[in-house]
From TrEMBL:
The keyword Flavoprotein does not apply. It comes from Aquarana catesbeiana. GO terms for cellular component: nucleus; transcription regulator complex. It is found in: Nucleus. This is E2F/DP family winged-helix DNA-binding domain-containing protein.
Length: 159
């Protein structure tokens, strides 16, 4: 676990750097006699090398030449799957909302085209300018509100 923590905190390191730090930590905390020290250092270095190989096999670290890089601990696949499912549902809901908005805009465009067509037909049939209030002049404003909304609208004399 110490090897993993060392590589994680450093991000990018080397085998010797990790081994040197762990040997230094071990000798500072245990206070072994100098005769045991050489054996302990070699043993620690071997175990660091073993731990790094295990971390590489688990794809937690990567190693290129002498450089060791931290990749990251594997996540809980069940939790990750649940997170992805939630994200998928959010995106599906957003797609539904956007589809509904697009549908509404398409209906509005069709209605506007029909209105223009209707105005042209009335003009062509009568061969005279249309009667007052028989057509809707463009541009115009459409306001969609609840029935309880009070709208105060005024138009200048030159429209």
């Amino acid at each position: 676990m110490k090897v993993c923590e060392k590589v994680q905190t450093k991000g990018t390191t080397s085998y010797n750097e990790v081994a040197d730090e762990l040997v230094a930590e071990f000798t500072n905390t245990t206070g072994h006699l100098p005769t045991d020290s050489a054996y302990d250092q070699k043993n620690i270095r071997r175990r660091v090398y073993d731990a790094l190989n295990v971390l590489m096999a688990m794809n937690i670290i990567s190693k290129e030449k002498k450089e060791i890089k931290w990749i990251g601990l594997p996540s809980n696949s069940v939790q990750e799957c649940e997170n992805l499912e939630m994200e998928k549902q959010r995106r599906i809901e957003r797609i539904k909302q956007k589809t509904a908005q697009l549908q509404e805009l398409l209906l509005q465009q069709i209605a506007f085209k029909h209105l223009i067509q209707r105005n042209r037909q009335i003009e062509q049939q009568s061969q005279t300018p249309p009667a007052v209030n028989s057509t809707i002049k463009l541009p115009f404003i459409i306001v969609n509100t609840s029935k309880k909304t009070v709208i105060d609208c005024s138009i200048s004399s030159d429209k």
